[in-house]
Amino acid sequence: MITVRVPAKVNVQLGVGGLRADGFHGLANVFFAVALGDEVTASPVPAGEGVTLTCSGPDAGVVPLDDSNLAARAARLLAAHHGIADPGVHLHIAKAIPVAGGMAGGSADGAAALVACDALWQLDTPMETLLELAAELGSDVPFALLGGVALGRGRGEILEPLPVEGTFHWVFAVADGGLSTPAVFRECDRLREEAGTGSGESDVPEPDAEPALLAALADGDAVALAAALTNDLQPAALSLRPALAATLRAGTEAGALGALVSGSGPTCAFLAKDADGAAAVAEALRASGTCRTAHATYGPVPGAGVLA
Ligand code: ATP
Fold first, then answer.
1. Is the pLDDT at 256 greater than 80, yes or no?
2. Confidence band (pLDDT; 50, 70, 90) for 254?
3. How close is the Cα of 181 to the center of ligand 1, in Å?
4. Which of 12, 91, 99 maximizes ligand 1 atoms within 8 Å of its Cβ, making it the mutation to test the pocket?
5. What are the pLDDT digits (tens) for 39-87?
6. CA-69 nearest atom, ligand 1
7. pLDDT tens readout for residues 82-132
8. Do 57 and 94 form a contact (C-beta atoms < 8 A)?
9. Active site residues
10. Which residues does 162 contact at the CB level (< 8 Å), separation at least 6?
11. Max CA distance (Å), the chain
12. Which of 72, 74, 263 is nearest to 180 (CA)?
């Protein structure tokens, strides 16, 4: 039996370019892995019994346990890559990452399942190959293998690890219900059209990593990082879920250095000065009535890894 721990991500910068002909947006995506994470356990079942799934945790009821689950798809993809015709594995997901919350929880489970099945089946797949398989599963899956802090380009899957100093303290305010990532991108395009700027590749400048943000990460400077946080999807997430404005305000009023919607939302992320500051912001958010719950955590942390 193999258990893999895998981090959630927050995008400290999410720069969204114009809509491309292939239906994707060019991104400048600075991923940051946080200790809030899932655990995926792979247990052997006799060959030919297929891939079975269970899930536990507060959001377990809304996690699909059919073939669409990214953990199951990852196990099958790894087996197919190695020519294993009749894989047998049971995967249990201990879910702590909010579902459809903009923290790439499904992608994290996909990455964790790749690592767990690779160890269970003693395949020793090189990291480079795992990263290629991860990119086939989804744009956010490779980062969950890598962890740390990285710049994602293309659809987010071309990754460049970034230097970072020390530990940053975060709070995540979990909303009731999720937001569909494709719906948030569509709303982003719609708002750009409405504003008259256009939403195509020729209308929107190609996004790039902000030098001030990269310097703040490399210096371990939380105040500077807070000032540099940006998310081009935030107006769209707020348009679809106006109540998030009150959540962002509650965290800022409680002393957070900076606040933004995490990825496509609706989870809101807050940067705190230190661990005590994060605990205080989380407590204030829980008491504010503007979110379902709030978690204090930290990062960066490594990507998907087998627990000893
Ligand atoms: P992202 O930030 O990568 O766009 P997200 O964090 O907003 O994604 P996820 O938690 O990954 O959202 O879930 C998005 C959808 O993916 C869910 O609504 C669910 O139908 C599907 N899904 C597939 N596999 C999983 C999984 N292992 N855990 C959670 N959701 C999954």
1. yes
2. very high
3. 9
4. 99
5. 999 999 987 789 999 999 999 999 999 999 999 999 999 999 999 988 8
6. 24
7. 999 888 999 999 999 999 999 999 999 999 999 999 999 999 999 999 999
8. yes
9. 9, 140
10. 30, 148, 149, 150, 151, 214, 217, 218
11. 59
12. 263
Decide: 264 in ligand 1 pocket, CB within 6 A.
yes
Section 141-146 average pLDDT: 97
Report how far residue 63's alpha carbon sits from residue 113's, in angstroms, rounded to the nearest whole number: 15
| Amino acid (one-letter) located at 58 | P
d(CA 239, CA 187): 8
- H or E element at residue 3: strand 2-19
For a ligand 1 pocket test, name from 59, 63, 186 the mutation site with the most ligand atoms within 8 angstroms of its C-beta.
Answer: 63
- Are 47 and 69 spatial neighbours (Cβ–Cβ below 8 Å)? no
Q: How far apart are CA 27 and CA 287, in angstroms?
A: 36
Report CA(244)–ligand 1 centroid distance (Å). Answer: 20
Residue located nearest, by CA, to atom 8 of ligand 1: 104
DSSP code at position 82: T
Regarding the beta carbon of 142 and ligand 1, being less than 6 Å apart is answered: no
Taking residues 24-42, report their average pLDDT: 96
The residue whose C-alpha atom lies closest to atom 13 belonging to ligand 1 is: 100
User: C-alpha distances in angstroms, 40 versus 182, 223, 235, 242?
Assistant: 26, 35, 34, 34
CB atoms within 10 A of CB 225: 22
